[in-house]
């Protein structure tokens, strides 16, 4: 039989109304309308997705894609399908994921994804693999729109198996606003996590926190390097696949914000890996020379000035680094361990930290700040972070009647506050407990006597 010629707009109107819109409704509500009106008689309904309807839609698409030019609409339909999917993702999927915006990496079953992109690979010669197809954040969102089919799941830090997302519930400044140090109190909600029973500061537990880079500085870096923040990259270097046929994907923005220690201090090993990516011969030589013994003084001077990975990457303008190679050059952000200043028996479901923002003067006079303490300085209730419990050397004696002597300076007070809370909890439960004696030191009592009201109240008891 000879295929019929179908005008583009007529055919697209049918596909959109009787196919795409019905599918969107199913995705939104989980059910399909029992009928849709016929184009020639709006008052007369027809069953949706009956065998006849399937055949009619299939025939329409077939006829639109098998004609000779100028009546072959395969490219136009391909483009409009993509636009329709992108529109749905922007309207429905991304808003639904808004509360998960701090989660960056996801796993996708590559085999099924390849099936979905099979037609695209046939029609576009440049699409050679899943990574070649998935290049924009909108493409990544498609996997979330059809998560069960792709076995897609959001992950906080796939490279940190024990890491969990926890939400900040309280943040209080403990030092005067005009003081030259910033000391503060942070509380996180650990209910329902694996660490819920493992965050008692009196039982030798600490909290490992994984911080993120300053978003504004990352945006500035991406612009300087001419990198698209929404570009998708596979990060097997960070988190090797744990299941057959799975890939781990993230965006460039998330990669540099949440995973790579972009503003950390590099070693010469970094420079040895970096110089081959320089296109300009003079820059290639300049980078390579910094790894030589005769350039030790210059390299150490850069170290003293706290030159970062980002500084080197921006300095040498001819660098051409594929996006997936950055994770081979820059290490990931490591955990920062904080003593827990609360007892989970006394405060169930919560974990509290006592933190001071770290700062120092680099050569040249510029003030530098610690990544993790700065991250916690600006985090606020409602924000989330990745953390897990870890072991600490500070642990109360098993003998609850023992007299415990404690001595700490500054934030070294943290575990001893947990000791006091634990004894208070045990005493309230009828256990006979021994006395506690605390020796605490700070530079200025008015500024650094942390939790003063609490300890004075305990002393009064």
From TrEMBL:
Pfam families: Cullin, FAD_binding_1, NAD_binding_1. GO terms for molecular function: flavin adenine dinucleotide binding; FMN binding; sulfite reductase (NADPH) activity. Residues 166-375 form the Sulfite reductase [NADPH] flavoprotein alpha-component-like FAD-binding domain. Residues 408-460 form the Oxidoreductase FAD/NAD(P)-binding domain. Transmembrane segments: none annotated. It comes from Polarella glacialis (Dinoflagellate). Its cofactor is FAD. GO terms for cellular component: cytosol. This is FAD-binding FR-type domain-containing protein. InterPro entries: Cullin_N, Cullin_repeat-like_dom_sf, CysJ-like_FAD-binding, Flavoprot_Pyr_Nucl_cyt_Rdtase, FNR_nucleotide-bd, NADPH_Cyt_P450_Rdtase_alpha, OxRdtase_FAD/NAD-bd, Riboflavin_synthase-like_b-brl. Keywords: FAD, Flavoprotein, Oxidoreductase. Belongs to the cullin family. Residues 49-103 form the Cullin N-terminal domain.
């Amino acid at each position: 039989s000879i295929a019929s010629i179908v005008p583009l707009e007529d055919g697209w109107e049918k596909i959109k109304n009787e196919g795409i819109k019905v599918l969107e409704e199913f995705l939104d509500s989980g059910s399909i309308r029992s009928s849709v009106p016929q184009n020639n008689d709006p008052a007369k309904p027809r069953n949706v997705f009956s065998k006849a309807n399937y055949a009619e839609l299939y025939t329409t698409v077939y006829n639109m894609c098998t004609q000779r030019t100028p009546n072959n609409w395969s490219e136009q339909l391909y483009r409009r399908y993509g636009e329709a999917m992108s529109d749905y993702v922007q309207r429905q999927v991304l808003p639904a994921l808004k509360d998960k915006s701090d989660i960056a990496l996801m796993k996708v079953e590559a085999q099924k994804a390849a099936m979905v992109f099979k037609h695209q690979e046939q029609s576009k010669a440049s699409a050679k693999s899943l990574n070649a197809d998935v290049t924009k954040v909108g493409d990544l969102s498609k996997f979330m729109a059809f998560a069960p089919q792709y076995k897609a799941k959001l992950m906080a830090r796939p490279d940190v198996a024990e890491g969990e997302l926890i939400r900040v519930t309280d943040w209080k400044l403990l030092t005067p606003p005009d003081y030259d140090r910033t000391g503060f109190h942070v509380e996180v909600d650990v209910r329902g996590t694996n660490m819920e029973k493992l965050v008692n500061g009196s039982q030798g537990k600490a909290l490992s926190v994984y911080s993120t880079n300053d978003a504004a500085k990352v945006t500035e870096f991406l612009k300087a390097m001419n990198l698209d923040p929404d570009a998708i990259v596979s990060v097997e270097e960070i988190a090797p696949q744990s299941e057959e046929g799975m890939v781990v994907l993230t965006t460039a923005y998330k990669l540099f914000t949440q995973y790579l220690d972009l503003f950390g201090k590099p070693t010469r090993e970094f420079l040895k890996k970096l110089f081959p990516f320089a296109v300009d011969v003079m820059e290639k030589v300049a980078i390579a020379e910094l790894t030589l013994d005769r350039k030790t003084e210059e390299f150490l001077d850069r170290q003293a000035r706290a030159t970062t990975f980002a500084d080197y990457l921006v300095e040498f303008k001819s660098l051409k680094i594929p996006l997936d190679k950055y994770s081979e050059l820059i290490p990931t952000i490591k955990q920062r361990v904080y003593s827990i200043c609360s007892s989970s028996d006394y405060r169930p479901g919560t974990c509290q930290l006592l933190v001071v923002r770290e700062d120092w003067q680099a050569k040249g006079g510029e003030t530098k700040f610690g990544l993790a303490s700065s991250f916690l300085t600006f985090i606020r209730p409602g924000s989330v972070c990745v953390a897990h419990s870890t072991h600490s050397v500070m642990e109360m004696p098993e003998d609850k009647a023992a007299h415990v002597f404690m001595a700490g300076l500054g934030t070294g007070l943290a575990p001893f506050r947990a000791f006091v809370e634990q004894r208070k909890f045990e005493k309230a439960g009828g256990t006979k407990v021994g006395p506690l004696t605390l020796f605490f030191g700070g530079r200025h009592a008015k500024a650094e006597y942390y939790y003063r009201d609490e300890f004075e109240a305990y002393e009064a008891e």
